[in-house]
Predict the 3D structure of the following.
Amino acid sequence: TLAMNFERLLASCPHAASLLGEGCDGATFAVGRVPYGFVRRSTDGPYYLGDQAAVIASFCGEGMGIALTSGASAASSFLEGAAAGSFQAAFARRVGMRVRAMGLLSRAMCSTPMQPLAPALAGALPSAISGVASAVRSPVP
């Protein structure tokens, strides 16, 4: 079970136990109010990466791709001497449309009228699912 695995983790990794503290009892935690569709266009100084740069809907499976892409892009920008603001604006242009589009699609699929229709549409149009998956993937440099 989750609780037993969590206890095993705490017992085998003292550093994790110290970070998580005694307040964690293996209970399931939930995350809510995730700002799907968020794209940072400017910065107040630092290079913002990962979910601080853009938050794509979880069903896309592309959050880690955006995190890695933002890190690699920021490193290149930094080494080229580009200001953080230039990087942030360029990264927002690079991922903005697909992040916002997938945020809208996620909200639509979670709406009451669409919930029963989404599986039927996916079954009827499997190529559409492949198209969406291809459209959201971060390009490999």
The chain has six helices and no strands. The mean pLDDT is 86. Residues 84-110 form the longest helix (27 residues). The CA atoms of residues 97 and 103 lie 10 Å apart.
